[in-house]
Design brief:
about 220 residues, five-stranded mixed beta sheet, four-stranded parallel beta sheet, 9 strands, about 20% strand
Amino acid sequence: MARLNGGDMAFTLLHTAETHRATFDAIAAREGADIALRHIVRPDLLGHALSGVTPALEAEIAALVGAAPGPVLCTCSTLGPVAEAHGALRIDAPMMTAAAKIATDCGGAILMVYCLQSTLAPSVALLDHALEAEGREVRVHTLDLAPFWPLFEAGEHDAFVAVIARQTREAAARIANLSAIILAQASMAGAARLIDLDVPVLASPELAFRAMMDAR
């Protein structure tokens, strides 16, 4: 557990990739957050979810969330709906809300980029919900970059974010009146700084962390 500035507020973060531990510890340090972060890293949960969420998998996630000493943030977009159903915060919810507000203000389209097929349905549903809350119909384009997911799994993070950024820039250039880009998975966040376009590029970790802090 990482303790920051001696605070007694604790949050549990449920990850399916080890790299997210360092990501959130770094965000907390930059934000000067007076909390303790308890990390649970379970890549096996995502592995099981790729074949479908079974009652046994849901029960295990429910048990992890229920046993946590304090609020829980699920950092996996695939597991987000199940974790939320049992009381956890979803990492991508603040990002989808922000994208919906931007698109509503600008009246343009959204490009959502993802690297796991299992992420697509829950991400689109969450974005649709955020757009409905804004009372706006917005065209949503999706970009499937699943062929590059093995780079992340192999720990080739620099190559992974570089190709995500390049493919996203190329896709964005083909979309008229684009208002925002969503990087649907936390693993893609590093690509945001490389995309370098005149539209907001939204990644979930920092937005989720701030929302988690606001919800204390």
